[in-house]
User: Fold TetR/AcrR family transcriptional regulator C-terminal domain-containing protein from Actinoallomurus vinaceus.
Amino acid sequence: MARREPLNREKILDAALALAAEEGLDGLSMRKLAKSLGVEAMSLYNHVSNKADILDGIAERAFGEIECPDPALPWPDRVRAIALSMYRAFSRHSVVPLALATDQANPTSETALRPLDALVGALFEAGFPDDDARRMLTAVNSVIFGSLLLSTAGFTVDDFPADAGGRQVDLFARRIDPARLPHFSRLLTTLPAADPQVDFERALDVLITGLVAAAPGGAPNSPAP
Assistant:
């Protein structure tokens, strides 16, 4: 008989990520998780406190995959690099942004907070005062999480159907009159060709252009007035 590997926190988080990816956050329960591991539910509590602890753990993993750029780079480049890395990390673990957005996960470890610290540091370097830095951080997060929401059907699936854009066009095309809604009808034709990451990067670039324009310190490396 093969020897079963001892249960540990990392093994539990591995199984939790797999189960949540397959069944969503609602399908992630201690009972189902224990069953997937071939153990009794009570044995999980030797390594994790509860479901919230598990969600914090898998969120921390996603944050741990975010790459912080060289602090010597100009602050707009650092904002872009961190935001893009966040988008990619959360795209790989689509249940994580849902857990964060619905306040089911609130990781407070240094690993989880380091990318946010780097992002806020870039905003402070731009000259934004504390309140505005908070507002700009919210704007960056809104682009990241909003783009993920639109591209992953509400964070509930890892593999968004390839023909989803075409089916959306067909749905609207059958129900609207182009003569009455000409602008929306025109926009519909772009949906099938949409690339979520390309769209995200374009939105992020527009946002960063606005941040540079609003920054009290002006554009980096710009001559003093």
